[in-house]
Write a structure and sequence with these properties.
6-stranded mixed sheet; Rossmann fold; single chain; 8 helices; alpha/beta; globular
């Protein structure tokens, strides 16, 4: 049945990450650093001998570009790539496009922290992490997990919060644990699954 391999990678640094802006579903590109992070992730995967049967990514260009760069470094530019908005970043609603410091000045540090780091409190017009998980996890169970369990090597390039939702499921994290989980840009997270979809082994490919 193969290795039942699942690799999760957050996109490289985006233009709005660099500017400390709430990004969410806004479609912004990578910085030069973000391009370098994605290429470095691809090189680390290649150095470990990883090859993939299918790739999944979001409908947003920063994740798609990061995936393209990784696959180029691995030598799999023609890999089958499935793009779906179910893997998009959390929608920050009225916070989208705002500088995080400006948002704290407007609403107060405690309120902005609650919107950013609670599990089930959504910013105005946006999604909570719970809302994000409600669209990410069914897609994972229906589209991604069956490929992994069948023995395919699968890579997913997505976003901090869509990946948090997946990691919550994979690692059986509580809502409190998952909101505290930091996911670095351009760092592959390697999971090998058991036949029952539980995690047999986890590895982080840091520099």
């Amino acid at each position: 049945m193969g290795n039942r391999l699942l690799v999760l990678v957050r996109h490289g640094e985006s233009e709005w990450n660099k500017q400390n802006l709430f990004t969410g579903r806004r479609d912004v590109g990578l910085t030069d650093k973000g391009v370098a992070e994605a290429r470095a992730a691809g090189r680390r995967l290649r150095a470990q001998g990883f090859r993939f049967d299918v790739a999944f990514t979001s409908a947003l260009v920063r994740a798609q570009h990061s995936l393209d760069l990784m696959l180029e470094e691995i030598g799999q530019k023609n890999l089958d790539v499935i793009r779906d908005k179910a893997l998009n970043e959390r929608d920050y609603g009225d916070l989208s496009g705002l500088n995080k410091d400006d948002a704290r000045a407007k609403w107060g540090d405690d309120q902005v922290k609650l919107w950013r780091r609670s599990y089930d409190v959504a910013p105005p017009g946006g999604e909570s992490l719970k809302d994000t998980a409600a669209r990410v996890l069914p897609y994972y169970r229906e589209k991604i997990l069956p490929r992994v369990i069948a023995g395919d090597n699968v890579i997913v390039a997505a976003h901090g919060n869509s990946l948090r939702a997946l990691i919550m499921q994979l690692e059986n994290l509580s809502p409190t644990e998952v909101v505290a989980r930091e996911i670095a840009t351009g760092v592959p997270l390697i999971y090998r699954l058991n036949a029952d979809a539980s995690v047999a082994e986890k590895q982080e490919l840091v520099v």
